[in-house]
Amino acid sequence: MSQLSVSLLRLGFLVLLWAMVLVAIGVLRSDLYGTRVTSRGKGRKRRARTDGRANKRAAPSRASTGVRTGAVSTQAPAAAHLAIVSGTLKGTTVPLGASPILIGRAATCTVVIEDDFLSARHCRIFPEDGRWLVEDLGSTNGTFLGNQKVEDPVPFSIGERVRIGATTLELRA
Predict the structure, then answer these.
(1) pLDDT in tens, 19-57
(2) Is 165 left (phi over 0), alpha (psi -120 to 50) or beta?
(3) Strands, E, within the chain: which ranges?
(4) How far is residue 108's CA from residue 38's CA, in Å, rounded to a whole number?
């Protein structure tokens, strides 16, 4: 083998080695920093904040969350919105309608919260017979209404607080 062939072979192996290192770094980076959150609205651009904090506006409730309740009342219950009172999205309010609110880390949720203690689809808050209920969707760390762990759908009244991970939600009129 000529000296040129050996040099080209070495260079090829070096390029291949660096490509594998960069792919491994990319995989580690995505595991550490999670998924990239994108805007849901068409043509709507997210405004960058100068202080580095995330935009505190949550998407309005949607009926297309993929979660269906048996018979959802077409008349919205008395509560007007869901307020986030602690956690990364503190100060955010989500208007309530006749459709369920799905909360979790997945991009398909109505309220997306980046928290390691939340499941992809953690819990849902939904109207039924003129009242709001909260239901845990089999999360690992649980959903708490006050100090009680929620396992089955439980009535959720105005002023009560639901805790999921480091986030606390409150139903307000």
Answers:
(1) 999 999 988 887 777 656 555 554 444 444 444 444 444
(2) left
(3) 81-86, 93-95, 101-104, 111-112, 123-128, 131-136, 143-145, 148-150, 154-156, 161-164, 167-172
(4) 11
pLDDT tens track for 6-19: 999 999 999 999 99
pTM: 0.55
Count of Cβ atoms closer than 10 Å to residue 65 Cβ: 19
Structure token digits, residue 147? 């100090």
Q: Mean pLDDT of all residues in the chain?
A: 79
DSSP string for 122-153: -EEEEEETTEEEEEE-S-SS-EEETTEEE-S-
